[in-house]
Structure formats: structure tokens, C-alpha cells
UniProtKB/TrEMBL annotation:
It comes from Candidula unifasciata. Coiled coil: none annotated. One of its GO terms (molecular function) is store-operated calcium channel activity. This is Transient receptor ion channel domain-containing protein. Residues 838-848 have a biased composition (Basic and acidic residues). SUPFAM superfamilies: Ankyrin repeat.
Length: 1061
């Protein structure tokens, strides 16, 4: 920078209009560059914005280039200077440059190579204003038709996206992040979107996908996701009445009003938990849940609600019948209430579980069983009649005698069909995609599929059994023989049936399951029925969120299932690794069998039973986690060591159990030679290495699985439970709302199995559907569109009619406009409160602070002068380089004279902020401490300077005394008398103080000792030495004088700095 440019920049910062105008006028003649920048890249307009000098800004806008103006505009936006931003964008130079840039196309800022700006090239003024959430500046640019273009999807393969990705991938990611940060600005969404809540939901979904793809910026995207959620909750919080809440929750993305809870369902689908759990939303949901018919339940306590529930349960079947007959009656309105539907469906589910328990425990069947004809005369069956004994014997011997489909099974079939009808209606109303997304629906689908498969197999088996019974007439003949008490022929008949069982039909006459095939249809049916029963009872957990105590537990259980699923990945890897290693180690021994005598019987056992094949190895490792496999199960049974022999050896040997075992074979005991040959130590210990390595692997497996992985799973589950408990209220309300919505839709009023009965209403709906399908009558659609009005709107209209009030019919757009205005007012109030809090601390300058001492001043302390609302932070002056190359901070001086920088305002008698503006009391105290430290340093330097002056004076006197002493010594040296002592010679000089005589003696002693005996040559030499000493003393004195002057200049500079401060 030249001197003119330094003067120009400092004048722009200090607000000196005269210097700025004069510099601009002389710029054509001088070497002044009006677009010059300082060492931080700040131009004159930038500095003027820092000091908020509007007159200077107006002058500079007329002379600076468009690039400088654009850069200064971004700086003004970052400072939040609304007036300056408005002044810049309304200036003709900026408008002309903007129009020129728009006509030329502007180019893509992504490929801009200049990086002199403090902002990235993709940052536009509107984007920067959105980053700071300044609604006033955002509105300025929106009114000028500025927009923020939404980035292309991250998976976009267009030419522009591919080029940017290949050019600079990091720059592309940063540009996308900046754009979404601006789009997620609450002020920008409120001012630019006609539906801010919908925009919030969509942005959240996009940014959550980006957070999953761009892991590097995941935290930034998640913070913006949370910001969007808070904005939606703030808008919901600004609703002042039920009408506004109802309008917000009923607006759907299609723009229709067919569903009064369309927006709420969308929020649940997008997992907007805080929005759903908002108090306004929950209060509206609670009003709909209880309705006008059951609203009294909301005011009852828990005990009274339980008593009412007990009294209500017996009346459910009668109310269902009344609803079928007269759906439009008072009972029909009660049955359509969501809480009533929940109670009836819950009671139906409990009845279904009771039926499943009855079918599982076979309560309808007798608890005694007669398997043989001889048992019919047993005393313990004397309480039974003869007919009961016959029926019990037939059920245990012949399969057709036991009915497969009982009355309980028939009831279960009706329940399953009713549940299937509910699921079909749900798929039709919500769509297949939404149906699949709910894992409870997947559970219902699996349960119903298994129940239907089970009963299909059961009916198939029933048909086959009846066909076999008709072929042999087995039950009739057996029943006749038993009634005739011809038990001998009955046993013969059973023997004949067993002999003819090789035919396919005879198979279905056998009653003993031990004689059935493992894949018998009835066995498979029981397996499917058992699994479905487990899931049906687990399905009850869906009802737990309806209760505040049980809801968080159900949510924690679902979260822990996810943890277990993630844990199983690592667990399967470790389990498979050890399974492969141990199987590779024991594969030979697991396949070998040896004969051993166990409890007096000869049995064939595996040499390594725990690792017999991959399947057995897997089971052994899995159950070992629960302590079901001992260390003895993994040892190898050696045929020689454990007293056995290979199964396929020609001589099958065995051992007799006991403390002392002996080896035997089929043709007698071993001879001594045979025993010695077969029982060699090498052959007995042949499996020692395998057993040792196997033991170590098995031990390491237990350490890894039990100590490490199991405790890791416990820690993961504990962490999930703590997360749920931290946000327990939001999680529970969100889950409860999902449960409530299942009962708030029209339809499915009757519980199972009453929903299988056709009602007049269903017939009417079917007729309208057929009529609409063939005639395409739009009247039916319009009637259906306006039919689904909540009772809240109807009740409000009734109240308005009774009070002769005009109902306020407001559209959704009007309500959103109200909410946006309230939000902007809220931002304005928050801004004003922030400024008031900032002004409360007081923005005082250093020269406005006076030390008031109550001991020296009478009366109260002087008042603190008022300060303008905005005093900008000072920018340090432009550094200059001194002659020696060191940077020195200097204020520029105007040519032709000096100008004081501490001028005061005439109105408020306040100084203009020049070099220091302290906004808070802490900063004032900190500055005061710095001044105290500098004052102490100046005082110490002053003392040091005085000490140096005293030392110089002392050196001068000492030099004079030394010269006199040396002359006396030289004269005495010419005399033949002995040399005097230095102490006497020095003490004779009475002009030197005693304190200095001792030091002089110490200094002169070496010089006197160095003088030789006598002679003229010696005197000349001494004179030369004396002249050299005088020259050295003169140089020392000059050096000390220069040091003193330098210290005086430094002291003077510090005093000037202190006075300036």
C-alpha cells in the first residue's frame, strides 16, 4: 500500500468524509487505487461498514467496482446491518452491475478460480442471509426475485453433476451443504414456502438420506434436521385454537380435505416424533380419541375407569348386535367412538387368546386314557361309565375316533377369518406399501398365514382319516365289538389292522403318533399352530403404548430387538470361526464309533460326541454359552485308554463299568502280549495334542463369547434403554398416537367375529361403490369428501349457532399466513431482547471512563453518559513498516496538518469510536488491568533509567580518580623509595567517598602491580596505556549515553500511548 492508500483506508474506517472525498477527487492525479485492500483483504467500503458510516458508504458506492461492492454486501449481511444492506442493494451502481451480470449469464460460481473473498464462491447474498436466519434481509432479496436453487439429488448423473464431481468432489459436497443449510433456515422457509410445515418434512427426509450417504458431513446434516423439526414445533406452538390445529393437521399433500388427520399421518410416516408429541397436537388427538359420547372417561381416575370397563365388557355383544341392526342410533355413535373401538377390539383379542389356550391345553378332552382292553376293569376307572371307557379306548387305538376339528377349533377358524378380513380392508385403505412398513402388520400376516396353513392341513388330514375309516369301517366294527364285550375279537381286529397297515389308507388308522411319519400333516399343523400361538401372544405388546406405565417398556423392547439383530452379525462371525476350527480339529474322531459297556450294556458311542458333524458342532458351541456343555463332553474317547475298541475292528472289545475295568473280547481276554502291544503309551496318547488345542480353543471361545460379546450386548441394551428413558415422554406419545390412529379411521367398528356379519350400512356402501364404478357419478365422491368431518367442527358450529355467532371459515393458506406472521414477530422480539440485553451491559470507551475516588470527591459519582445503540467494534489501524523493517501501528496523518482523533459529538458530548470500543464491563476491567500493567512497566523503566544515569556519573568520577591515582603512581615509580601500598595511596584521596575507595582500590590494584620499576621508556609506555584507557572510557560513555537516550524515547512513546488510551 502507498501512503495515499493507507490514508484513504483509515479515513474510510474513521468516518472522515473530508479526507475520503478529497482522496477520491485526487485519485486521478495521484497513484491512489480506490479498490485497494489492506493486509486482511478489506477494501474501503468493508471498513466503512465495520464503523457503520452511512455517509462514507454512500460516497464509496459511487466510486468502487461491482466486485468490491458485492464483497462488502456479503460482509454487511454477515454483520446483520440491515440498513446498510438495503442501502447497497438499492444503489444504482449495484443494481446496474447486477443487471449486467444477469444479462451476461453470470457463469457458474462453482468454477470460479479467485479465492480472495472471505466467503466461498457459491455463497450468494440470499444464501448468506439464510445462514444467519435474518428474516429482514431475506425478505429484501425475495422481493427482488432472488431464489435458492435446490441441489440435484446426490445420485444424479447429469452432465453438470458429473463435471462438478470430477472437478472437485469436496467443493461439490460443501456447495450442497451450504445450499441445504440455507434451505433449512426457518426464516427462509417461512417467507418463501406457502406450506412451511410440508417443506420442513420434505427437507428432513432429503437431509436424512444425505446424512446416510455423506458420512463425512453427517453431524452437520443431522443438526439441520433437528433445526427443521424445531421450526415445525414452533409453528405448531403458535396455534392459538383448535381450529388452527385442526387445519394444520388435516391438510394433506394432495390438497384435499378428505382426511382430517392427513398431515398427522404424514408426520408419523416421516417419523416426526417431536411434532406428533407436541402438546397442541396431543390435546387435539385426545379430544378425538374420547369423542363427545365418551368424553366423561377423560375426567375419571384410574379406578373409576377400571370399574366402568368391567361393567361395559358384558354389554359388548349386545351393543354389537344393536349396531348391526341400527348403526345410526345412539348406540351406533358410541360404538364408532375410537376409545370404544379400542375396548371392543381389545376384548375380542383377549377372547381369541383364551380360545387358543383352550385349544392348546385340550380342556374339552378327558384327562384319562385307556390304551388296552385289560385296563377297562382297572379300579381307577370305576368312576367312568362303560360308554366312556369305550370312547377312551377307541381314541387311544384308532385315529378316526379322535375328532381333529373341535368346537373350539371352529371358533378359532371364525376368529382367523375375521382377522383376515380386517387385514384385507387395511391393505385396501392404506395401500400395500404403507401396510408392509409396519412390522406389526408383517407379524399379523405371518400369524394368519400360519393359522390358515395349519387348519388347511388339519382339514386335509380329517378328510383322509374319514376316507380310511369308511374303507375299513374301523370305528364301527371296533365300537360294536366293545359293546358286545368281545374283547378277544377286538384285539384280533386291531392285530389285523396293524398287519394291513402297509397300505396308504391303513396309515391314517393308526392313533399312536410314535408310528407316524415325521412330516405327517397333523404334526406339521401342530407345529404351525404352536408357532402362531407364540406370535399371537407376543402381538399383545402392541396394546402396551395405550398405557403410560407399559408404553416405554414396549418401546425399549423394540429397540433392544434391533440391538440383538446388530449383535447377531458379530456373534455369527465369531461362532462360525470357532465352529470351522473345532470341526476341522475333531472331524475324524466325531465320525468314529467305539463300543463300550455302560451300565452293564454294550453300546456304540462316538469318539467325540460334541463335534459330530457341523450341525452337532454348532449346537455344542451354542448351548455351551448357557452352560449345557461340560468340559468332559469335548474329550475324545480313546479306544485303548477308555477301554473300548473301534466299532469295525474284527475283535470287538468292551469294558465292564467299575472302578477297575478289564478288557475283554469275543473269544476271551487279551493275552499279555496283545495287551502290551495295543496299549503302548504312544498309541494311548495319540490324541493328546488334539485335545490340548481343542481345550484352548474352547476356552478362548468362552472368553470371547461370554466375557466380551455377551457383556457388549448387555451394554448396548442398557444404552438403548437409557436413550428411551431420556426422551421417554416423546417416544411414548408418538407410539400412542400410532396406536390411536388405527381406531380413528372410519370402518372396522365391529370387533371380530361380528365384523363377518353383513350390515345394512355395508350393503349401502357396496351399492354406492357399484354405482360409482359403472356410472362414474362424481356426486358420490363429493359427498364422501365432505362426510368425514370431525365432531369438533360440528360441535363448534352448534355452539356458534346457539350463541348467534358467525362461524369463522378460514382456509389453510390463511392460517399458515397467520402462523408465519406470528413467527416473524417472535423473531423480531427475540432480536430486540438481545439488543436490549447487549445495551444493558453498556458500550463504553476507554476515554469515557473516569476514576472516581469517594475520599477525594464530594457527592455522588458522575453519571455515565448515554451511548448509541450500536458502537462498532474497532478495527486496528493499518500497520506500517518502520525503517528497520519492524511493523509499527501508526495512524495516518493528513497532509498539511494534524487532526485529532478524539473528537466529540456536539449533541450527546460523546466521543466518536476511533480505536477502541468496549462493549461489556468485563472488557473494561480487562483493559484497566492492562493499563495498570503498562503503568507499572513504565515506572520500572523510569527507575532503571535513573539507575543508569547514576552509574554513568559514578563511572565519570571513577575515571577522574583513576587518572589522578595513576599520575601519582608514575611519579612515585621514578623515585628510588619503596612502592607504597594501594590502600594508603587511595585513602589519601579525600575527595572520593569511603564506599567508593574500596572499589577503587580493587580496580587500581592490578594497574599498580603491572607497573615496572622505573625509566623513561616505562613512563612512555604507561602514558600510551593511559591514553588507550581514556579512549575506551570515552567509547563506554558514548554507548551509555546512547542507551539512556533510547530509553528516554521509549519512555516517551509509552507515555504517549498511555495518554491515547
Amino acid at each position: 500500500l502507498t501512503d495515499e492508500e493507507r490514508v484513504f483506508l483509515n479515513a474510510a474506517y474513521l468516518g472522515d468524509v473530508g479526507i475520503v472525498r478529497q482522496s477520491l477527487e485526487d485519485s486521478a492525479e495521484s497513484s491512489l487505487n480506490v479498490n485497494c485492500v489492506d493486509y486482511m483483504g478489506r477494501n474501503a467500503l468493508h471498513l466503512a461498514i465495520d464503523s457503520e458510516k452511512l455517509d462514507i458508504i454512500e460516497i464509496l458506492l459511487d466510486n468502487l467496482s461491482f466486485n468490491c461492492i458485492e464483497e462488502a454486501l456479503l460482509h454487511a449481511i454477515s454483520k446483520g446491518a440491515t440498513k446498510i444492506v438495503k442501502l447497497i442493494i438499492e444503489h444504482p451502481n449495484f443494481m446496474a452491475g447486477e443487471d449486467k451480470l444477469r444479462r451476461m449469464g453470470g457463469g457458474d460460481a462453482f468454477f470460479r478460480l479467485e479465492e480472495k473473498s472471505q466467503f466461498p464462491p457459491d455463497i450468494t447474498p440470499l444464501i448468506l442471509a439464510a445462514h444467519y436466519n435474518n428474516h429482514e434481509i431475506i425478505q429484501m432479496f425475495l422481493s427482488r426475485n432472488h431464489t435458492i436453487e435446490k441441489p440435484h439429488p446426490i445420485s444424479c448423473k447429469c452432465q453438470d453433476c458429473v463435471t462438478k464431481q470430477n472437478y472437485d468432489s469436496l467443493k461439490r459436497s460443501r456447495s450442497r451443504l451450504n445450499a441445504y443449510r440455507a434451505l433449512a433456515s426457518p426464516a427462509y422457509m417461512a417467507l418463501s414456502s406457502p406450506d412451511p410445515i410440508m417443506t420442513t418434512f420434505e427437507l428432513r427426509q432429503e437431509m436424512m438420506k444425505l446424512a446416510e450417504v455423506e458420512k463425512e458431513f453427517k453431524s452437520e446434516y443431522l443438526n439441520m434436521v433437528e433445526q427443521c423439526m424445531n421450526f415445525a414445533c414452533e409453528l405448531m406452538d403458535l396455534c392459538r385454537g383448535t381450529q388452527e390445529v385442526e387445519a394444520v393437521l388435516s391438510e394433506s399433500d394432495e390438497g384435499t380435505d378428505r382426511d382430517p388427520l392427513a398431515r398427522l399421518k404424514m408426520a408419523i410416516r416421516y417419523m416426526e416424533k417431536k411434532f406428533v408429541a407436541h402438546p397442541n397436537c396431543q390435546q387435539h388427538m385426545t379430544s378425538i380419541w374420547y369423542g363427545s359420547e365418551m368424553g366423561f372417561l377423560q375426567s375419571l381416575n384410574g379406578l373409576m375407569q377400571f370399574v366402568y370397563l368391567i361393567l361395559f365388557l358384558p354389554a359388548i355383544p349386545f351393543m354389537c348386535v344393536l349396531y348391526i341392526i341400527a348403526p345410526g342410533s345412539k348406540f351406533g355413535a358410541v360404538m364408532r367412538c375410537p376409545v370404544t373401538k379400542f375396548i371392543t377390539h381389545t376384548a375380542s383379542h383377549m377372547c381369541f387368546l383364551i380360545l387358543l389356550s383352550a385349544a392348546t391345553f385340550r380342556i374339552t378332552e378327558s384327562s384319562f386314557a385307556i390304551t388296552k382292553t385289560d385296563d377297562m376293569n382297572h379300579p381307577r376307572y370305576n368312576h367312568l361309565t362303560y360308554e366312556e371307557k369305550i370312547q377312551s379306548l377307541l381314541k387311544e387305538t384308532l385315529r378316526p375316533a379322535s375328532p381333529l376339528v373341535t368346537n373350539v377349533q371352529i371358533c378359532i377358524v371364525f376368529w382367523v377369518l375375521g382377522l383376515l378380513w380386517i387385514e384385507c380392508k387395511q391393505i385396501y385403505s392404506s395401500g400395500a406399501r404403507s401396510y408392509i412398513m409396519d412390522y406389526y402388520n408383517a407379524m399379523d400376516f405371518a400369524v394368519l398365514s400360519m393359522y390358515l396353513s395349519s387348519y388347511v392341513l388339519r382339514f386335509f388330514t380329517e378328510i383322509k382319516v374319514r376316507e380310511a375309516n369308511r374303507s375299513f369301517n374301523g370305528t364301527y366294527r371296533a365300537n360294536a365289538l366293545l359293546h358286545q364285550k368281545n374283547r378277544t375279537y377286538f384285539d384280533v381286529f386291531l392285530a389285523e389292522m396293524k398287519d394291513a397297515r402297509n397300505s396308504p389308507k391303513n396309515y391314517f388308522m393308526e392313533a399312536s403318533r410314535f408310528q407316524w411319519d415325521q412330516y405327517d400333516p397333523e404334526i406339521v399343523s401342530d407345529v404351525l399352530f404352536a408357532i402362531a400361538n407364540v406370535i399371537s401372544f407376543a402381538r399383545t405388546t402392541q396394546l402396551m403404548p395405550a398405557f403410560e406405565v407399559l408404553g416405554p417398556l414396549q418401546i425399549s423392547l423394540g429397540r433392544m430387538i434391533g440391538d440383538i439383530t446388530r449383535f447377531m452379525v458379530l456373534f455369527t462371525l465369531v461362532l462360525f470361526a470357532f465352529m470351522v476350527g473345532l470341526h476341522n480339529l475333531y472331524w475324524y474322531y466325531g465320525a468314529q464309533k467305539i463300543k463300550m459297556v455302560v451300565n452293564g450294556q454294550l453300546v456304540a458311542v462316538n469318539a467325540a460326541k460334541a463335534f459330530e458333524g457341523l450341525q452337532q458342532t454348532f449346537f455344542s458351541l451354542f448351548w455351551s454359552m448357557f452352560g449345557q456343555v461340560s468340559i468332559n463332553d469335548i474329550t475324545i474317547n480313546h479306544p485303548k485308554r477308555d477301554g473300548g475298541e473301534h466299532y469295525h475292528k474284527p475283535r470287538h472289545c468292551m469294558t465292564m463299568d467299575g472302578e477297575r475295568s478289564k478288557l475283554y473280547c469275543a473269544d476271551g481276554p487279551f493275552t499279555d502280549g496283545e495287551k502290551n502291544e495295543s496299549d503302548s503309551p504312544q498309541m494311548v496318547n495319540s490324541t493328546a495334542l488334539v485335545e490340548t488345542v481343542g481345550m484352548y480353543l474352547f476356552g478362548i471361545y468362552h472368553v470371547v463369547i461370554i466375557i466380551v460379546l455377551i457383556n457388549m450386548l448387555i451394554a448396548m441394551m442398557s444404552h438403548s434403554f437409557e436413550d428411551i428413558q431420556t426422551d421417554c415422554d416423546v417416544e411414548w406419545k408418538f407410539a400412542r398416537t400410532k396406536l390411536w390412529l388405527n381406531y380413528m379411521d372410519d370402518g372396522s367398528t365391529l370387533p371380530v367375529p361380528f365384523n363377518m356379519i353383513p350390515t345394512p350400512k355395508s350393503v349401502l356402501y357396496g351399492w354406492h361403490a357399484i354405482k360409482f364404478f359403472f356410472n362414474q357419478d362424481n356426486v358420490v365422491e363429493e359427498q364422501g369428501r365432505h362426510k368425514r368431518q370431525t365432531f369438533l367442527k360440528t360441535r363448534r358450529e352448534t355452539v356458534c349457532k346457539n350463541l348467534e355467532l358467525k362461524p369463522d371459515e378460514t382456509s389453510y393458506s390463511d392460517i399458515m399466513h397467520r402462523l408465519v406472521k406470528r413467527y416473524l414477530f417472535k423473531l423480531e422480539r427475540a432480536k430486540d431482547e438481545k439488543e436490549i440485553a447487549k445495551e444493558g451491559h453498556g458500550n463504553l470507551r476507554a476515554d469515557d471512563v473516569e476514576i472516581w475516588d469517594p475520599t477525594q470527591n464530594d457527592g455522588p459519582p458522575p453519571p455515565i453518559p448515554e451511548v448509541p445503540s450500536r458502537i462498532p467494534f474497532a478495527t486496528p489501524p493499518i500497520p506500517e513498516e518502520d525503517d528497520d523493517g519492524k511493523s509499527n501501528m501508526r495512524l495516518p496523518r493528513r497532509k498539511g496538518g494534524t487532526r485529532s482523533h478524539n473528537r466529540r459529538l456536539s449533541s450527546a458530548n460523546l466521543p466518536i469510536a476511533t480505536t477502541l470500543a468496549i462493549p461489556q464491563l468485563d472488557a473494561i476491567q480487562r483493559s484497566q488491568k492492562l493499563l495498570d500493567m503498562r503503568l507499572q512497566q513504565l515506572q520500572a523503566n523510569h527507575k532503571e533509567t535513573n539507575r543508569l544515569q547514576d552509574d554513568v556519573e559514578f563511572i565519570r568520577r571513577l575515571m577522574a580518580e583513576n587518572q589522578k591515582g595513576e599520575i601519582v603512581n608514575l611519579v612515585q615509580c621514578l623515585k628510588p623509595q619503596p612502592k607504597p601500598k594501594p590502600a594508603n595511596s587511595i585513602s589519601s584521596q579525600g575527595s572520593v567517598p569511603n564506599a567508593h575507595n574500596q572499589s577503587n582500590a580493587i580496580i587500581l590494584a592490578p594497574s599498580i602491580n603491572m607497573i615496572p620499576g622505573s625509566g623513561l621508556v616505562t613512563i612512555e609506555r604507561e602514558i600510551e596505556i593511559l591514553n588507550a584507557g581514556r579512549k575506551m572510557d570515552r567509547e563506554t560513555f558514548d554507548s551509555g549515553d546512547r542507551f539512556i537516550k533510547k530509553e528516554m524515547r521509549r519512555k516517551q512513546g509509552l507515555e504517549e500511548d498511555e495518554s491515547n488510551l
